[in-house]
Design a protein that fits this description.
Belongs to the HIBADH-related family. NP60 subfamily. This is Cytokine-like nuclear factor N-PAC. One of its GO terms (biological process) is transcription elongation-coupled chromatin remodeling. GO terms for molecular function: DNA binding; NAD binding; NADP binding; nucleosome binding. There is one protein chain. Helix 1 crosses helix 2, helix 17 crosses helix 20 and helix 18 packs antiparallel against helix 19. Among the domains are: 176 residues, NAD(P)-binding Rossmann-like Domain (Rossmann fold, 3-Layer(aba) Sandwich), CATH 3.40.50; 116 residues, N-(1-d-carboxylethyl)-l-norvaline Dehydrogenase, domain 2, CATH 1.10.1040. The chain is α/β, with parallel strands linked by helices. It starts with a helix and ends with a helix. The protein contains 22 helices and 8 strands. About 21% of the residues have low confidence. 50% of the residues lie in helices and 8% in strands. The relative contact order is 0.06.
Length: 519
């Protein structure tokens, strides 16, 4: 402990003894460290510290004010010339200190050194900014003297802007970004494989043109049939895609027809062909013996029967029959049948299965149920428009159920075909080759082959509107819900059709589901 206390009191004397005993100078002493620290302090604070000409050692007196110039120099010389312990006297209470003893630096001195370093760094950065600004256009004005959009924003010289951005404005970062984005898109387009599908190249949806009915065209299939027209008068409500084709065939085969349509202009070609036009559905019922109805949805079918100027406005339907050809659910068919029977009329549901082309060729399928006598009286009409006719019993609703089941099979098949062809397209495989190979397999069917060719060509001319197919799926799912029947695949198929409708293909052919699968 005595040695430690002696070293603390006079570290220089202890260091000298160690040097003499070892024969070599001690590699580092406390005095050396003090000299190094004092030298750093004198470099960073030349105005605050004074050093002698030999070692730059500064005498620090704790608790006293700064020493005046002459007194500080005298103290430094005494420290350099002698190893004794002279005392330093200041104006404050007298304190005797040994020149060899070094007082530890106060914390306030270290904090001051750190602050000085930070100030020096900040000064250096400010000088650099001033040098940069000296070579640039002054803030707040562009090359033409007009104020810039934002303060403190660098302005690129016009020549550099013209060289780098091909004429873009030097003061418009938006123009520069636009050029960079265009260059990026161009590079991506160059890298993209030619056979890859561009998701951004989705075709523009155009509304399909309404095809005018050609009253002069005749189906070869229909011409070959030996049809004897009935003597009864047949009324027809609704001249849509299917209704107009059916009425044209009935007129061609010599049937007497009375028609009505919401849009009266559609009736004109049929008037020229020999049909009679009425103003309201009730007028058609009065003039006809058997009334056919073919509209787009169950709501429209009910409105024609129960609505204003509808069929039931004629209270007595004795000796008259009503045939529902619209695609409806069983409950709607039952409601209409009950209303007709309450007015002493007869009711038959005759669901038609097929497309517009099949209707034009007289190749539909008729699924009938209800009054058997009405079915027999309509025999000549069914023979005109259908290749096969099925009577499914007197229970109203059976024909609707069978038709919706068939529509479910068709819809699920179309979605599967669309997704398969979309996958082939992503592989850059020719869709026509896929269809040709498909035609040679046991899976082939006239429907899928026809729809596949439409998908390959991108021709979605409506033969069976996509909205009608989605309507049928909705009716099927409602029936299944009432029976707690799970139909997950049909549900997903319905969502695919709904999404395709949202894309704008509601009035296109059902084969337009390919667009949704492809993009």
């Amino acid at each position: 402990m005595a040695d430690i206390d002696k070293y603390i009191d006079d570290p220089a004397e202890v260091d000298d003894q160690i040097n003499e005993s070892c024969g070599v100078p001690n590699h580092a002493t406390e005095a050396d460290f003090d000299k190094i620290r004092d030298a750093v302090d004198s470099d960073e604070n030349p105005m605050d510290t004074d050093a002698d000409g030999n070692n730059g050692v500064v005498v620090h007196v704790v608790g006293s004010p700064d020493v005046e110039g002459s007194e500080a120099v005298e103290a430094g010389e005494n420290n350099a010339d002698s190893t004794a312990s002279p005392t330093v006297t200041v104006a404050t209470p007298a304190t005797t200190k040994s020149p060899g003893k070094r007082t530890p630096k106060a914390k306030s001195v270290s904090a001051a050194v750190s602050a000085t370093k930070a100030a020096k760094a900040s000064t250096t950065k400010s000088a650099q900014k001033r040098r940069i600004s000296a070579h640039q256009t002054p803030t707040g004005a562009n090359a033409s003297g007009a104020p810039t959009a934002k303060r403190g924003k660098r302005v690129v010289s016009g020549g550099a802007a013209a060289g780098n951005f091909e004429g873009a404005s030097s003061s418009s970062p938006t123009a520069r970004r636009r050029v960079e984005v265009d260059a990026l898109l161009a590079s991506l387009a160059a890298k993209r494989a030619p056979n890859a599908i561009a998701l951004l190249d989705r075709p523009v949806v155009t509304r399909p043109e309404t095809q005018a009915i050609d009253m002069n065209s005749r189906s070869n299939t229909l011409a070959d049939r030996d049809i004897v027209p009935s003597d009864l008068t047949f009324g027809f409500l609704g001249l849509g895609m299917m209704g107009s084709t059916i009425v044209k065939d009935l007129i061609y085969t010599g049937h007497k027809v009375v028609v009505w349509n919401r849009t009266i202009d559609k009736c004109q070609p049929f008037v020229e062909a020999g049909a009679e036009v009425k103003d309201t559905p009730m007028d058609v019922v009065e003039a006809a013996d058997i009334i056919f109805c073919c509209v787009s949805d169950p709501k429209g079918a009910k409105d024609l029967v129960f609505g204003n100027c509808g069929v039931l406005q004629l209270k007595d339907l004795r000796n008259k029959a009503y045939v529902e050809m619209s695609t409806v659910d069983p409950d709607t068919s039952l409601d209409i049948g009950e209303g007709i029977k309450q007015c002493n009329g007869r009711y038959l549901e005759a669901q038609i299965h097929g497309s517009r082309q099949e209707a034009a060729e007289g190749m539909l399928i008729i699924l009938a149920g209800g009054d058997r006598t009405v079915f027999e009286e309509c025999h000549s009409c069914f023979k005109t428009i259908a290749k096969n006719t099925f009577f499914l019993g007197t229970d109203v609703g059976n024909a609707c159920k069978v038709n919706l089941i068939l529509q479910t099979i068709q819809a699920v098949s179309l979605v599967g075909l669309a997704e398969a062809l979309a996958l082939a397209d992503r592989f850059s495989i020719s869709l026509n080759d896929i269809i040709d190979i498909f035609d040679l397999t046991s899976m082939k069917s006239p429907l899928l082959l026809a729809k596949g060719k439409e998908m390959a060509k991108g021709d979605f001319n409506p033969q069976q509107p996509l909205s009608h197919m989605q309507r049928d799926l909705r009716l099927v799912l409602n029936m299944a819900e009432n029976l707690d029947q799970s139909m997950p695949v049909t549900s997903i198929t319905n969502e695919v059709f709904k999404h395709t409708k949202r894309l704008g293909y509601s009035e296109h052919d059902s084969s337009a589901v390919f667009v949704r699968s492809r993009f």
